């Protein structure tokens, strides 16, 4: 029986100064991640990109975005684990000095 992998995009763009993280999940999909996983006899379910909910209950807004993303990602992980293994797609941009 094939293992099910849930691809979950996390377009997290908070807490950094360089642009580009929003493109990470879609770049990985375009590069053929799904096909590569299927080549290893895995069943792949693309659960699309997560979205940030209304954060009006969270203050202050700066750290609130990180709290919001943590809630969304935790919920997606719990849901995906019911039927498979979650793989979160994101891009980390580092700054070289």
Topology:
Layout: E1 4-9, H1 24-30, H2 33-38, E2 43-49, H3 61-80, E3 85-89
Parallel strand pairs: 1-2, 1-3
Can you offer a commentary on this structure?
- Helices cover about 35% and strands about 20% of the residues.
- The protein has helices at about 25-30, 35-40, 60-80, and strands at about 5-10, 45-50, 85-90.
- The protein has a three-stranded parallel β-sheet with strand order 2-1-3.
- The radius of gyration is 15 Å and the shape is flat.
- The model has no long low-confidence stretch (mean pLDDT about 85).
How would you describe this structure in keywords?
97 residues; alpha/beta; 3-stranded parallel sheet; 3 helices; 3 strands
Give a quick summary of the entry.
The chain contains 3 helices and 3 strands; from the N terminus they run E-H-H-E-H-E. It is an alpha/beta fold and 97 residues long. The chain is flat, with a radius of gyration of 15 Å.
Total DSSP E strands: 3
Count of folded domains: 1
Helix content: 25-40%
Count of helical regions:
3
Regions with pLDDT < 50 over 5+ consecutive residues? Answer: none
Strand content: 15-25%
Mean pLDDT: 83
Major pleated sheet: 3 strands, parallel
Overall geometric form:
flat
Strand order of the largest sheet: 2-1-3
Cα-to-Cα separation, first versus last residue: 48 Å
Give the helix/strand class. Answer: alpha/beta
Order of helices and strands: EHHEHE
């Amino acid at each position: 029986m094939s293992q099910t992998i849930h691809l979950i995009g996390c377009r997290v763009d908070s807490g950094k100064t360089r642009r580009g993280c929003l493109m990470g999940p879609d770049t990985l999909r375009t590069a053929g991640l799904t096909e590569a996983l299927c080549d290893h006899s895995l069943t792949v379910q693309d659960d699309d990109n997560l979205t940030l909910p209304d954060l009006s209950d969270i203050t202050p807004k700066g750290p609130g975005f990180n709290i919001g993303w943590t809630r969304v990602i935790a919920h997606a992980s719990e849901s995906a684990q019911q039927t498979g293994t979650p793989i979160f797609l994101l891009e980390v941009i580092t700054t070289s000095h």
